[in-house]
Every structure is written in structure tokens, then in C-alpha cells.
Amino acid sequence: MLTPTRLFIALSVFAITAQAQPACVTKNHDDQSLSRCKPWPAFKEQVIAVKSTYVPDAGSDDAGVFDLDLALLNSTNAKPIATYSKPGAYNSDAIRFDDLVIDTARYRLAPDVRAFGLRSKFGHSSSAMPYEKTDLTLYVREGNKLRPVLDGLVVFKNNGEWLEDCAGEGRQIRRTVEIGPTSHNGYADLIITSSGTAMKTVKSGKKCVAQDTPLKKSQITLTYDGRQYTIPEDFRGY
To answer: What is the reported pLDDT for 23?
Structure first.
């Protein structure tokens, strides 16, 4: 077993010598690319590596897409075990693509199938119309390929509209994903629990008063159709 330092060196060498594969190096988002790398606790000899690279739209400096390159690597020699690529995976315009987070929670979809997640973060910086969103996609390994089985579930969203004189309203939604006791087409059902807060500010004399109201919790169950988990439209997108 390599020490953390030796593993980093090995994976850095892999980043240089295997240009066709995602580099297993952590690189902060600089508006052009980002890289993330994380050991997978479910499989001690495997590391999850992801890289996303910006491709501007033709004739536009302010809008474009980010390609996605994803890989499972052998932690002892940095060789790819399974890979996945998606050109134009993330749009980035007025709503910017901000970050990727590797999610290694215990997504056991079947006795012999573990998934891992990517959480993609988007945002729009504005005091008048703030917007934040995080999507979750789950991937499974099939031979030397990775495949998304849950694609683009919104697990966090915060948006609203406020005027300069204080008045405004917004909403924050959070969702958790649990493995259910039942299954369809060989994969466990996913139980999605939604909670959140309705936010409102009003002018009271010279003061700006916040009025936050908890939203009622709700649950839905997502079932696997043989290729993917079906997500309701209001649980995805912008």
C-alpha cells in the first residue's frame, strides 16, 4: 500500500503521462478547468478522479460548456479501471458552473453494486436575484466503463428576488437520498426527502424584518427503469 505522499506522486506522474485520461490531481476552478480526486472507501484500491474543462460557445466569451472526464484509477499504479466522458456536460453562462464534489456515501444499489456520486454546483452572484443549485449524479461501474444511473437530481437550491428597499422573498430547498427497502429491475429504490424554508423580508418602519417559514417535509420514491432512475421534472433542471 502506498503512503499518501507516494500515492500523490504516482498519480501526478499519471496526470503527465496519460493525457487521454483525467488527471488525478486536485486543481481549483479557474474558469477554465478544475480537477478533483478522492479515494473510494468502498474499494480501498480504487481512486475516483474527475476533470472538467471549459469550451466557450462560438463567438461568445461569456457563455460555454464544461466537458466532463471521469475515471476510476488503481491506487497502486494509477492505471484506469473504468472511464466515462461527456462533452458539454455542464452549461455555464449567466448561471455559472462553479464546482464538482465527489460523493462517496454508501449508495449500495444491489448486493454487488455500489454507486458513487458527483455533486455539480452552479451559482449566480446577485444581491437582488441570488441563485445557487447543486445537482447529484450517481455512477456505477460496468466493466471498463462508468455509467450514470441517476442524472441531475437537484439536492440543493436557493433562489429569490429582493428589492433595494428590503422587500423580497425566496426559497431554499434541500434533499437527501436514502436507499429504500424495495427494488425495481435489480436496483434498490431511492427515497428522496425534501425540506426547506420559505424566506420573506418586509419593511417595518425603518427596519427590514425577516419572516422565515419552514416548508412541509415531503418524500418521493425513485425507481430504476432498467437504465436510469426516473426523476420528476420539478426535481431537476433550473
So the answer is: 41
